[in-house]
Write a structure and sequence with these properties.
- By secondary structure, the chain is an alpha+beta fold.
- The chain has a domain at 77-194: Aminopeptidase (3-Layer(aba) Sandwich).
- The protein has helices at 36-44, 59-67, 100-107, 112-119, 153-165, 182-188, 203-208; strands at residues 20-22, 51-55, 71-82, 92-94, 124-128, 132-139, 142-150, 171-177, 192-201, 214-215.
- Strands 1, 2, 3, 4, 5, 6, 7, 8, 9 and 10 form a 10-stranded mixed beta sheet that branches.
- Coenzyme A is lined by residues 24-27, 32-38, 55-56, 58-61, 63-64, 67.
Length: 221
């Protein structure tokens, strides 16, 4: 059995009790459908705080999460496309501590330690506007967008597009909730849907996240 729950993916809200973002859950193929996933989730999701995850299309995953009180909320589209030929709103480089308040409002989680850890990784840069922020990570020709957020949906769009405009890489990847205005902006610019998950949360989690103005990091949430 192999379970992957990235410690960096754990997200603690400013609320009591603390919440959790479940990063990933995998069971080796030869052990699937024998109760291992259910047992792992019973342990991982037993706390009382808000719970959020990105479920694959595996019906067993969605069923297990629903049985733990989470609901399928919106598709999470993994988009990839060129960094050029998009609007270029201005952004400035910033440090994670400067965007903590905006991140809490957009993502629902207070996770300064996680953002500080991420900002120290090679190739990671944080950008901000007056009302939005975006982290990007460049490794070789690959650019990963997120987390990003804004006071409103367009503020998040501006932060992401501004960060894309600074990119050295030609191609970028981003995980966007289906109701976010970036979906039509990027698909309209010729980006492709590489994969799709389902953003799932329990009622407390639903009350915290703003998927129309938040772009999660694919792994950190
Ligand atoms: C998804 C995964 C983690 C589940 O773990 P698992 O050990 O195989 O699952 P379990 O045997 O504990 O439970 C499967 C549940 O799905 C239910 N199930 C199976 N097919 C179903 C279907 N089509 N519709 C609804 N429920 C279904 C089973 O009845 C069982 O529920 P129950 O225990 O309440 O009866 C595992 O199958 C896996 O690694 N899949 C591939 C990777 C993946 O997609 N991971 C999810 C990432 S979010």
């Amino acid at each position: 059995m192999r379970n992957v729950v990235a410690p960096q993916g754990a997200r603690f809200t400013p609320f009591d009790p603390p919440g959790v973002h479940l990063g990933d859950l995998f069971v080796l193929p030869e052990h699937q459908s024998s109760g291992a996933g259910r047992a792992l989730l019973a342990e991982l999701l037993r706390g009382a705080g808000p719970k959020v995850t990105f479920a694959s299309s595996d019906p067993r995953a969605i069923a297990l999460y629903v049985r733990h009180g989470l609901r399928p909320w919106t598709p999470l589209l993994y988009l990839t496309g060129p960094t050029s030929a998009l609007p270029t709103p201005p952004v400035r480089r910033t440090r994670p501590e400067n965007i903590t308040a905006l991140d809490i409002r957009a993502s629902g989680g207070a996770r300064h330690a996680t953002l500080a850890w991420y900002s120290a990784l090679p190739g990671v840069t944080f950008y901000a506007t007056d009302r939005g922020y975006d982290a990007v990570r460049q490794t070789g020709h690959d650019l990963v967008i997120g987390p990003a957020g804004g006071a409103g949906p367009q503020d998040c769009v501006d932060a992401v597009l501004g960060a894309l405009a600074t990119a050295q890489a030609r191609i970028a990847r981003i995980a966007v909730p289906g109701m976010h205005p970036l979906v039509s902006a990027l698909l309209g610019a010729g980006w492709h849907i590489a994969d799709m998950d389902t953003l799932m949360a329990d009622d407390a989690g639903l009350a915290l996240i703003h998927p129309d103005r938040y772009v999660p990091h694919p792994d950190l949430g």
